Amino acid sequence: MVNRDHGDVGDAPSVPPPLQPVSIPAQPSAAEQARTIAAAANAATLATLTVDGDPWASLVAYGLLGGAPVLCVSNLAEHGRNLAHDPRASVSIVTASNDADPLATGRITLAGAVTAPLDGDRAAARTAYMDAVPSARFYIDYSDFTLWVLRVERVRWVGGYGRMDSATGADYLAAEPDPVTPAAARAIAHLNADHADALVAMARAFGGYPDTEESVCTGIDRYGLDLRVHTRRGIAYTRVGFPERLTSADQLRSVTAELAHAANGSA
After folding, report:
1. Mean pLDDT per 10-residue segment, the chain (267 residues)
2. Known InterPro entries for this protein (predicted)?
3. What's the chain look like in SS3?
4. How far apart are CA 5 and CA 163, in angstroms?
């Protein structure tokens, strides 16, 4: 369940491998993960280049036009002047989290170049920004503000320690935000508080760790559950996939109940 496409693991702690194959390892692609993170927020760190070629980072608000970030930037601001002379830019978006370790939180970088939307595209971009940032009605039509659309060319997703991957701009724009994510936090809390035994059974039956002694749900998406399992061999992370991809968060209760029943039946 770990994606590493760079670097040396060095002296990273060893993780006990699964003793059996994971039954359904399906999980969201990097493009899907990125679309989901982008759709859940409306603030990002914008990186631009100054006239001298120096990097410049600024906090900005954004909307989404078919997945492409829409910015409304003052021409008097440093980053506004930067975009006017060099359209290359990237935005970094971080998942909201209460985790004390910010590096354990999911985040993305979307890189490309900005363009000013024209004609009909401008109306769509304006609407997308206003939908995400309602207070923009006080300034969006001022002459010293410019709408920019970031044409995404490269995507980097990091899901926390040891979980990372890249995607093309085309794959990102073709992907869809996960419909389960808005309800995930409440479902995770419910499973961990009321169904700890079921999570252990799932990890043993479907997650490849029949020696699981404790199992904690750390994530849920349309494809399945992320689990942190505790064994006598150490702590590992695994996946319990759903039989079919979910299309709505309303399906979560029934599919997790079915998984728990199936896991207990296979014990």
Report:
1. 43 78 94 97 98 97 97 97 98 88 90 94 96 96 96 95 92 97 93 96 97 95 95 94 95 95 84
2. CREG_beta-barrel, DUF2470, Haem_oxidase_HugZ-like_sf, Split_barrel_FMN-bd
3. CCECCCCCCCCCCCCCCCCCCCCCCCCCCHHHHHHHHHHCCCEEEEEEECCCCCEEEEEEECEEECCEEEEEEECCCHHHHHHHHCCEEEEEEECCCCCCCHHHCCEEEEEEEEECCCHHHHHHHHHHHHHHCHHHHHCCCCCCEEEEEEEEEEEEEEEECCEEEEEEHHHHHHCCCCCCHHHHHHHHHHHHHHCHHHHHHHHHHCCCCCCCCEEEEEEEECCEEEEEEEECCEEEEEEEECCCCCCCHHHHHHHHHHHHHHHHHHC
4. 10
**From CA 227, how far away is CA 219, in angstroms rounded?**
7
